[in-house]
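Here is an idea for our session: we take a single protein and study its fold together. Once you have written the record down, we can walk along the chain together.
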Amino acid sequence: MVILGQFITSTIVIATTLFMLTLVDPLSKEGIIIAMYAVAIITEIFIYCWFGNQVHIKFSMLKLNWKNTIRTNILILQLLGLWPKEDEEYKLNLYSTYAFVSIVVIMAGHNFFQILNIYFVYNDLKALATTIFTMSEEVLVVVKIYFFVQNIGTVKKLLTSLNQDSFQPKNEKQLELVNSTVNFWKIIYGCFLFNVGLTSIVWSSIPFLTESVQKKKFPFPAWYPYDSTVSPWYELTYLYQALGIWYIAMSDVNINTLFFALLTYIVVQCDLLCDNCKNVTNGHFSSTQNIISCIKHHKKIVRFAKSSNEVFEMVILGQFVTSTAVIATTLFMLTLVDPLSNEGLIVVVYSVAIITEIFMYSWFGEQVHFKNIQKFTLTNLENFGDYRLDKITKT
């Protein structure tokens, strides 16, 4: 009530002093007195704000909202129709209608017309290779989206579970540790987004780069049940393909990087647990209960990792199988074109994007494996001091 009264009164006083300054000469004695009084009142409410903000910062530091660390990722998924608001799952509403149009009409439809084209070009080896080359990864993305949408509730529960006290940093040192690891993920996210965005721009511009737009060629070979070479159908179909590849590319990036974020959280939690164990070893924690908390924290990390793996295991399998096939196809494609031509450079850029994608899966997975080996050894438990570990483990 004191703070409320202070802000109401100070607001009135500041408004009054500003009015008083219009009635006197600001450089006169009376004007200087009024100005000094105004500064005193402003300083008073500034001090309230400053100390209150310090409390807010410290509270926020120790109660980290993990979802905010990937808010850009989640925002793009929302725009693509892949992330219902807040903690909801899909239900009959306007957003679900938009999601249906985005997933089925734009992305799945884009792939469907490319698959139909195989029937018309299966006798032409180069045309068939070109169709499969561009289509395989896009089909995989639609499969990824299917599994992601099916498990959206589990993914949201995983992110919500991170708000438990066990998963929170305990001090400024641990917060810095969290920020350094998460910031690295943000750099990877930005680089991957740029790489895939550049690839999408190149693919969308193929007819212009190869000067085939005058022949009414499309970025992707596909069959349509109408004459797509006449206006305005050509322009509309071209726009449909460009929209389709952008939706597919952005979905692929953000589903992949969301999984990378979950792996990053596991790595961070391993580091936090290790730091907590070291504090116990150094005598910072004096009770057996703190050691038990470390053991419970370890169990929660294992459950989190297991649930993350169950959501994305089929996606990862599909990614490696498809990426292997695509890389093999791109190497074959390079034997059919001049590597330094526009078409050859497009193939190379696409190959780099695919290799980067599977490299990141391997790299983040290796980080989890490395932390597991490095941190969770019996030596960490052997140094707990004089505590009865057999009793603690049983508890």
